[in-house]
Design goal:
Oligomer: heterodimer
CATH superfamily of the largest domain in chain B: Cupredoxins -  blue copper proteins
Structural class of chain B: alpha+beta
Number of strands of chain A: 2
CATH class of the largest domain in chain A: Mainly Alpha
Shape of chain A: globular
Order of helices and strands of chain A: HHHHHHHHHHHHHHHHHHHHHEE
Number of helices of chain B: 2
CATH topology of the largest domain in chain A: Cytochrome C Oxidase, Chain A
Number of strands of chain B: 14
Number of domains of chain A: 2
Strand content of chain A: under 5%
Strand order of the largest sheet of chain A: 1-2
Order of helices and strands of chain B: HEEEHEEEEEEEEEEE
Largest interface: A-B, 25 and 30 residues
């Protein structure tokens, strides 16, 4: 088939072409609506209606190009229902709408990885500016935009950092199913996220945005048109999160294989279920809030415009009603990966399985009752502070339970220090520091001096990067051999781990000192001269941390593109079901649905816990 | 062997594409934001460094200078060829005398703090307003201030009257249009990076007048890069 022939059809190329076309169609249609209305331009300074309709048109064109509207139209025309699309075939599947959950998982891994590196590049730009205490490379507005893109990209994209690649790939396999409950919606969540990422990056063409990742009012109302990109990005991420969460819940609740009772569910599945519940309940609030903020800018509503009777404070509250559960959307999958991997490398059953599940569910529940600790000093009713202080500190109990289960699983285990295990062990260290520093921020008196400073920034980097990103890499090293059928280089993996661990701590620990002693505020381009040594130290460490990421990339490309050493069937000696299937897993996963007889953590207790019927798993290949 | 060659080619193309995209991204962030320094020409008089710095203050920077924010109030600097540039980071020599001329084309919005109605930190603590020595202006007639806090320097700029004829809508503004000319002299000290700004909350429509252009380098905010 010729290259031109391959490009024609419903795929990424067509999607990009129709996406650009849709953008211009939206742009021009809004111009036609607004026309030469001077009143409109006098009010809004910029034709933001065109910008927003342009992006909406772009997203629709992108989805049409990928073929998302083909199936609904076919059904309207009377074609029979079908759950599968483009599942057979070569590399083209990865650049189009494909309903194979394994393909979607790998799409997520590469797509999110790409935006993770873009977010990381922005972090390098931030640290370049902070090499000197005065303005140096970027003006204040540009610096704020870089900080905003970094924060928003990381917080938005990494919400699906573990659920996207690993849950999509593994959940149907771990529960003994052949697919997700809604395969097309599964694919849609990925492509929406990619469209969102591109939209966020285009903010630099419209003046950027000064609000960081929170989009606070009245800054949001008064910001450049670039903030529309922020609103659209996060709204699309919210839609993607909601659909992803619903799909996960539906799949786990309704499609478990015989024998897979709730008490036999792998802990990773429990973690995904908890996270999915958080997504479904929290993300719609985000979508609604950002839609209201967008309407304030584009069609002159006044939800958050104080001068017109709205409330900027309402935005802050609504944002954090989503925002704090969002933090646990990032953290919980990390807990789940650690608890899933530890028994394999400690050669012991997971200690306190029910306690761990309780911990995950406890965090899920309590995370909806803590949001105002972000607003202690925003003028909230002072009587509310003790409640939110207490609820925040209370959440350390279920968090501590999962931590305890992990520690006890290690106790007297026969620990193997393979790369995934090293990343899991680092999680204990990082998350402990992140968690303990969080107590200072949840406590109203100490939050007086620490909020809004680099102390707070160091805290959440320890929890999110130390908690999520380290476990993200644990997942990559652990499951990529399953996903691709090839090993990652262990030696390079260990070098990657140690450089990342050391430079991560050298980067973020000094920021506690800068925030606590020097009172260095976040999101300010200049800082006191006395803090230059600390900042230079941090910048150099951050650059080396960036270097460790490049080392990972080198290992990834070298191992999977050039070396291509086939992975053993079960390289880690796991008892979990995914390692009983061929690598990579066949399209249909199982010829016949397996039967489960126990949980997968019976190390030292005899045979494997899953009975795979004779003939399976031959798959379709 | 051929397959390996294709892989190497693929990785090389990927790396090159990434490098180009990163370059374009960083380039977009670093350009067109007024942060690029303008080096003011230096003369030597009797062994002493002297510079002649000419700037103008405009009510709106206009689409020619800033397509993104044509309505932003702004300062522009004049280069040796007489061309106006949207640059607010000015590179000056250390320990030099600066003869500064400001052409103010904007209307008056008044001072919140009348203290700034008196010039400070300049030679003689007085300036020439349209050729006339002045050490105080009516705070209500003030349009902007030029201030360098590290030098203790503040100079108030008288605004163009509301009923003046031939007012300038947006930059570049010709000297034939309604304006006031303010001249004064100050001295740079040691090497350093000194912020200058306007202390009149003149960013109408922004947070208390201090948002938008007031907080953005390339408009009402900048640095003296003293080398």
């Amino acid at each position: 088939m010729s290259v031109a022939r391959r490009l024609v059809g419903f795929n990424l190329f067509t999607a990009c072409v129709l996406g650009v076309g849709g953008w211009y169609a939206g742009w021009f249609s809004a111009h036609a609506v607004v026309g030469p209305s001077l009143d409109y331009f006098a009010d809004v300074d910029f034709n933001e209606l065109s910008l927003v309709l342009g992006y909406i048109g772009g997203v629709l064109g992108f989805l049409i190009g990928l073929g998302f509207f083909n199936y609904p139209l076919a059904r309207l025309r009377g074609y029979p229902p079908s759950l599968r699309e483009k599942e057979q075939g070569g590399i083209g599947r990865y650049f189009s709408l494909c309903t194979d959950h394994k393909v979607v998982g790998i799409q997520y891994l590469v797509g999110i990885g790409l935006f993770f590196f873009i977010g990381g590049l922005n972090a390098m730009l931030i640290r370049t500016e902070l090499l000197r205490p005065d303005h140096q490379v970027w003006p204040a507005g540009t610096y704020l935009t870089i900080v905003g893109i970094h924060g928003t990209m990381m917080m938005g994209m990494m919400t699906s950092g573990i659920l996207g690649p690993f849950a999509n790939y593994l959940i149907p396999i771990l529960i003994g199913a052949r697919r997700m409950a809604f395969p097309r919606i599964e694919a849609l969540t990925f492509w929406l996220l990619m469209a969102a990422g591109v939209i966020l990056e285009t903010t630099i063409f419209f003046g950027g945005f000064p609000t960081g990742w929170t989009g606070y009012q009245p800054l949001g109302t008064e910001a450049n048109p670039g903030i529309d990109c922020y609103y659209l990005f996060f709204a699309l991420v919210g839609i993607s999160m909601t659909l992803l969460g619903l799909n996960m819940i539906a799949t786990i609740v309704t499609m478990r294989a015989p024998g897979l009772t709730w008490s036999r569910l792998p802990i990773f599945v429990w973690g995904v279920l908890s996270t999915a519940a958080l997504m479904v309940l929290a993300a719609p609030v985000l979508i609604a809030t950002l839609s209201m903020a967008l309407m304030d800018r584009v069609v002159q509503t006044n939800f958050f415009v104080a001068a017109q009777g709205g409330s900027a404070y309402l935005y802050e509250n609504l944002f954090w009603v989503f925002g704090h559960p969002e933090v646990y959307v990032l953290a919980l999958p990390g807990f789940a990966i650690v608890l899933e991997i530890l028994p394999v490398f400690a050669r012991k059953p997971l200690w306190g399985y029910r306690l761990a599940v309780g911990g995950l569910l406890g965090v899920t529940l309590l995370s909806f009752f803590v949001w105002q600790h972000h607003l202690f000093f925003s003028g909230i009713n002072a009587d509310l502070r003790p409640f939110f202080m207490l609820s925040t500190e209370l959440i350390s109990i279920p968090t501590g339970l999962t931590f305890l289960c992990g520690m006890m699983t290690l106790w007297r285990g026969q620990i193997r220090y393979s790369v995934p295990m090293l990343f899991c062990l680092a999680w204990f260290f990082n998350f402990l520091i992140g968690g303990l520093s969080g107590v200072f921020l949840s406590d109203t008196p100490s939050d007086t001096t620490t909020h809004g400073s680099f102390f707070s920034m160091a805290h959440f980097h320890y929890t999110i990067m130390g908690g999520l990103v380290f476990t993200f890499f644990a997942g990559i090293y652990y499951w990529v051999p399953k996903m691709t059928g090839f090993q990652l280089n262990e030696r390079l993996g260990k070098i990657h781990f140690w450089t990342m661990f050391v430079f991560f701590n050298l980067t973020f620990f000094p920021l506690f000192i800068a925030g606590f002693q020097g009172g260095m505020p976040r999101r300010v381009v200049t800082y006191p001269h006395g803090l230059q040594f600390l900042n230079d130290w941090v910048s150099v460490s951050a650059f080396l941390l960036g270097g460790s990421m490049l080392l990972f990339l080198y290992n990834f490309v070298k191992s999977l593109v050039f070396d291509r050493i086939p992975s053993p069937a079960d390289p880690w000696g796991s008892k979990s079901i995914e390692w009983q299937l061929p690598s990579p897993v066949p399209v249909q996963n199982f010829d016949r649905i397996p039967v489960f007889s126990s949980d997968p953590y019976g190390y030292g207790e005899g045979g494997r816990p899953v009975v795979v019927p004779a003939g399976a798993p031959a798959g379709m290949n | 062997m051929r397959a390996t060659g294709f892989k190497v080619l693929g990785v090389a193309v990927g790396l090159a594409a990434a490098a180009v995209l990163i370059g374009l991204y960083v380039s977009k962030l670093t350009t067109d934001n007024g942060s690029k320094a303008y080096t003011v020409p230096v003369q030597t008089q009797g062994g002493h460094k002297v510079v002649d710095l000419q700037i103008e203050t405009v009510a709106a920077v206009g689409p020619q200078f800033s397509p993104a924010h044509p309505d932003y109030v702004s300062y522009l600097v004049r280069d040796a060829q007489g061309k106006w540039l949207r640059r607010t980071v000015w590179r000056l020599p250390a320990n030099a005398t600066v003869h500064m001329t400001i052409y103010n084309f904007d209307g008056a919005s008044g001072l919140r703090n009348p203290l700034y109605a008196r010039p400070q930190g300049i030679d003689g603590n007085s300036f020439m307003l349209d050729g006339k020595a002045t050490d105080f202006i009516n705070p209500d007639d003030t349009s902007h201030t030029f201030a360098v806090p590290a030098y203790g320097l503040v100079v108030p700029l008288t605004g163009v009257a509301d009923n003046a004829k031939n007012q300038c809508g947006y930059a570049p503004c010709a000297l034939s249009m309604a304006h006031h000319t303010i001249t004064f002299t100050f001295h740079t000290g040691k090497v350093g990076h000194y912020r200058w700004q306007c202390f009149v909350p003149c960013a109408a429509g922004w947070i208390d007048g201090f948002g938008g252009p007031m907080q953005t380098i390339g408009y009402m905010d900048g640095f003296l890069d003293v080398i």
